[in-house]
User: Which sequence fits this backbone?
């Protein structure tokens, strides 16, 4: 008879194997999505759904797995789930030249959930506390997201919004249950500083920007109502102002925290990537440019995650600040250029504006990639520990 330790070890090995195998399945899913082999992609999603159910309800690996293994496995799973959903979104935009709003909102919420869970989990582990067990809402949300993927891949229009709505509600419920668990513990009950509250406001307002940008349901942004174009411009200006204010207030009030160091770049990425997704839908940005920007942001976040595992916090570098500033300025220029008074005052402006956003996005992409190289060059010592 194997001992309890041996049984526990065997359970961990089984769980890691099935979870890694499930993660590997996402690679052909992404390939089949772009090849428009919808039935094959849906088949692999169905297999991943079964494996997810086995891990969550049969093996219950999340309850016995070591914290860091659990964190890394969930990190990979969350990242790949977002990439699959984002691939479906981009494929549909390219194919149909239209935006499924629920899918766009789902991508944003899925990305926020993935990043927020990773950051909070690292914080909990660094405090020496145990990660919470996966509760029913969290398990159901994970399975619902996988089902929603299959429905969108097969383009089952009648069920798409129903499944996405259910996934959003379950993600919201799981997030609330996690927040309740986190702040129920007196060790975690720390009030957010003013700087962190300003940073969080950017994350909260990002989905609102998505709604404002597509309020008229017209992919030609120049045709949208002037009021909402001005409101979208004001929100981007507000994002830039709060980005300056949170750092300034944290330094002035002597309240620079580890949470703030993580939240600040995270909120920048959330707001800017949401705007760039909108630009893809309107034709202001080619898919490959936004893909490169996303690749840089995801790579740097992975680098921060590796550094955090070594108890090292990578602060914002000057190149990163320049990158953020140029991204914000470029977004403002494009949105200002789309305003009705500008288009009427400048002769032959319409033909000029057809290529202007692409040039601006090209500059943004180049600066973003250069900044990413700078981060990796400055973090060579950290990379040597893992490569």
Assistant:
């Amino acid at each position: 008879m194997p001992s309890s330790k041996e049984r526990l070890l065997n359970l961990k090995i089984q769980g890691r194997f099935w979870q890694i195998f499930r993660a590997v399945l996402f690679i052909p899913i992404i390939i089949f999505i772009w090849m428009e082999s919808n039935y094959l992609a849906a088949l692999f999603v169905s297999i991943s759904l079964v494996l997810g159910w086995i891990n969550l309800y049969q093996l219950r690996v999340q309850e016995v797995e070591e914290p860091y293994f659990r964190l890394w496995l969930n990190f990979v799973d969350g990242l790949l789930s977002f990439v699959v959903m984002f691939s479906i979104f981009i494929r549909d935009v390219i194919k149909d030249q239209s935006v499924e709003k629920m899918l766009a909102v789902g991508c944003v919420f899925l990305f926020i959930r993935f990043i927020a869970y990773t950051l909070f989990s690292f914080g909990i582990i660094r405090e020496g506390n145990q990660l919470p067990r996966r509760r029913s809402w969290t398990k159901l949300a994970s399975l619902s997201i996988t089902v929603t993927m299959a429905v969108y891949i097969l383009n089952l229009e009648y069920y798409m919004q129903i499944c996405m709505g259910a996934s959003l509600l379950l993600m919201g419920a799981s997030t609330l249950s996690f927040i309740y668990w986190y702040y129920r513990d007196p060790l975690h009950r720390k009030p957010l500083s003013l700087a962190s509250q300003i940073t969080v406001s950017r994350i909260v307002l990002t989905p609102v920007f998505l709604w404002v940008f597509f309020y008229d349901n017209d992919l030609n942004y120049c045709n949208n109502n002037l009021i909402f174009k001005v409101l979208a411009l004001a929100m981007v200006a507000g994002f830039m102002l709060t980005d300056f204010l949170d750092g300034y207030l944290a330094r002035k009030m002597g309240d620079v925290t580890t949470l703030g160091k993580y939240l600040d770049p995270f909120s920048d990425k959330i707001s800017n990537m949401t705007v760039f997704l909108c630009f893809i839908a309107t034709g202001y940005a080619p898919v490959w440019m936004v893909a490169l920007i996303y690749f840089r942001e995801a790579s740097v976040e992975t680098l921060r995650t590796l550094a955090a595992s070594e108890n090292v916090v990578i602060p914002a570098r000057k190149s990163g600040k320049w990158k953020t500033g140029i991204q914000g300025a470029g977004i403002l220029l494009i949105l200002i250029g789309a305003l009705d008074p500008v288009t009427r005052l400048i002769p032959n402006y319409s033909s000029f504006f057809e290529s202007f956003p692409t040039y601006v996005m090209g500059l943004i992409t180049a600066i973003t990639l250069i900044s990413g190289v700078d981060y990796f060059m400055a973090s060579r010592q950290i990379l040597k520990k893992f490569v």
Remarks:
- DSSP finds 15 helices and no strands in the chain.
- The longest helix spans residues 4-34.
- The two ends are 40 Å apart (CA to CA).
